[in-house]
Amino acid sequence: MDKNILNDYIDACELIKETEEDIRKLKKKKQVVQDSVKGSMNEFPYTPQSFHIQGSLEEPGDRQAMKLEEALLKERKENAEKLKLDVESWLNTIPNRMQRIIRYKIFEGMSWEQTARKLGRKATEASVKMELKRFMEKM
Fold this sequence. Notes:
- The structure is a single chain.
- Helices cover about 65% and strands about 15% of the residues.
- It is an alpha+beta fold.
- The chain has 2 domains: about 1-30 and about 55-95; about 95-139.
- Strands 1-2 form a two-stranded antiparallel sheet.
- Helix 1 (about 5-30) packs antiparallel against helix 2.
- The termini are close together.
């Protein structure tokens, strides 16, 4: 595992959110048309009635294209989720302190000062920075 995969984790998390939104937009794209018509019974007494009708406006190839696009979006989301799970699984194998440093500094984008403050125990910017640097060098 290298530092680039940690940056990929951030992108994977964002990609999951964006892809979910794209899937929602695609499903909304199916345009439904509604209308009502008035008519009456065929036989006496001719009682007036209103009927509500609805349908979708689709060209013959639209449905197939939308299914293909949805499948591609789902595949993209699954790949991003797999990367996210791989990184989270790896995180569980490293020391707790290093998990916190990586989460604060890399995933949440905190400054070194904020990360040190969050860690507590008299941690300084320089000490936290050095801890992460040594850890990454050992990997």
